[in-house]
Amino acid sequence: MAALRQSLRAERPVIIDIGCSSGAMLRELRKAFSKATLIGADYISGPLLGLAASLPGIPFLQFNLVTCPLFSNSVDAVILLNVLEHIEDDVAAMRQAFRIAKPGGVVVIEVPAGPKLFDIYDKQLMHFRRYTLMSLCEKLQRAGFLIEDRSHLGAFVYPAFSLMKRWNQRYKDQPDQIQRQAVAKNISLARTNPAMNAIMRVEGALRPFIRYPVGIRCLVTCRKPAR
Questions:
Q1: pLDDT tens, residue by residue, 175-213
Q2: 62 domain-assigned
Q3: Is residue 199 situated within a structural domain?
Q4: What is the pTM of this model?
Q5: Are 113 and 217 in contact (CB under 8 A)?
């Protein structure tokens, strides 16, 4: 949110949250940008139906980002949180994000980091890949973007996280049922861990002053060149 607040130039921006899922980001955007026109989008219709009832006044669209139906140069900001790893042709998705952004528009992207940490959790969540920060930025630059800021998230918890991911890799040859049980246990532990939430808050407060060299996620803010 801080990255978007610093980068947006339009007084009344049009912001689209692609992969809006639970609507948490849209709720934050509504508080932070009271003059903005917000749009929610997702590949799956189920979440959109619920969000349409709970977030009146926000239009919701269902589409595949690779074949995005929006007009070119139509939005001031595109938010892609936990989206690109689910798309096989992520470069095509980046090009679509570039196309729909207005000249000078901003795109904020978050994806899982560490290709060597790909495990059953990624498999069960239908991830095609995990990224390095360098490879993500290179792909975005090839799509035409200018990189404005890049960092990692979860640097402070990375040692424990990487150990857990490598532990999970033991299950890669196990039946799907056992893999699903292991993933469900990991999700439950993460949700009930107040220490991790506190650590992430501290890390976030320090992020304006520190560029973390490692982490569990990659965060990039990029811009479509102005004409």
A1: 777 677 766 666 655 555 667 677 777 887 777 778 888
A2: yes
A3: no
A4: 0.90
A5: yes
In a domain, 91, yes or no: yes
In a domain, 177, yes or no: no
pLDDT in tens, 38-88: 999 999 988 898 898 899 999 999 999 999 999 999 999 999 999 999 999
Query: What whole-number distance in Å separates Cα of residue 130 and Cα of residue 86?
Result: 10
CA 166 to chain centre: 23
